[in-house]
Amino acid sequence: MTRLFLIFLLTAGLTSAAWANTASDRDLAREIQQPRYPRGAIEFFTFVIEAGEISKQDLAQAFYRRGNAFYYLGELERAIEEFSRALVLDPRHANAYYNRANAFADLGQHGRAVEDYTAAIRLEPDHDFAFFNRANAYSAKGDQGRAVQDYKKAYALNPADPVYQDKLRELGLFR
């Protein structure tokens, strides 16, 4: 029954937690968004993908969610494949670019990570995490000038974040 309910949610386009009005609904929505059981999420989204009969947008979301599950399991190449499939279907999916960039960065492919963080920022100019992680990728590539610019931009977008404050303090740019 739960699987059918989840399929209904996905096919109805209700992939965010906005619809949830009870605690159990919110827990279920969080489970869809960030599964505690990545293997179960992979199985579920594989079922949804193979079942077909869902919109292109929801199919992109299913690939994206399955990519997240692979990422949580440390299967970075598989995660990249899934995020790429999501982007073929929905090239405006900022979080698919962002998460694919994280996977590239984890694999040490910092140039590709910078490209995807830049794409995410182009789609969501206030994506402070993308600026911060792009700064880390620039730093890993040895481009400290661009890294500092992005660290400052992440801080400007979210000055309350202690991670951004600590990084600027480490660079001697924040007291």
Short key terms for the protein model shown above:
single chain, 175 residues, Serine Threonine Protein Phosphatase 5, Tetratricopeptide repeat, 2 domains, 74% helix, disordered N terminus
Count of beta strands: 0
- Protein structure class: mainly alpha
The overall number of domains is 2
Q: What portion of residues belong to β-strands?
A: under 5%
Helix content: over 70%
Q: How many strands, what sense, and barrel or not for the largest sheet? A: none
In round numbers, the mean pLDDT is: 85
Distance between the termini: 55 Å
The Cα radius of gyration reads 18 Å
Order of helices and strands: HHHHHHHHHH
Shape: elongated
Query: Which regions are unreliable across 5 or more consecutive residues at pLDDT < 50?
Result: 1-26
H/I helix tally: 10
Oligomer state equals: single chain
Task: Give an overview of the whole structure.
It is built from ten helices and no strands. The model is unreliable at 1-26 (pLDDT under 50). It is mainly alpha-helical and 175 residues long. α5 runs antiparallel to α6, α7 (110-123) runs antiparallel to α8 and α8 (128-141) packs antiparallel against α9 (144-157). It has helices at residues 2-11, 23-33, 38-51, 56-72, 76-89, 94-106, 110-123, 128-141, 144-157, 162-170. The protein is elongated, with a radius of gyration of 18 Å. 36% of the residues are buried. It has two domains: 1-89, no CATH class; 92-175, Serine Threonine Protein Phosphatase 5, Tetratricopeptide repeat (Alpha Horseshoe). The termini are far apart.
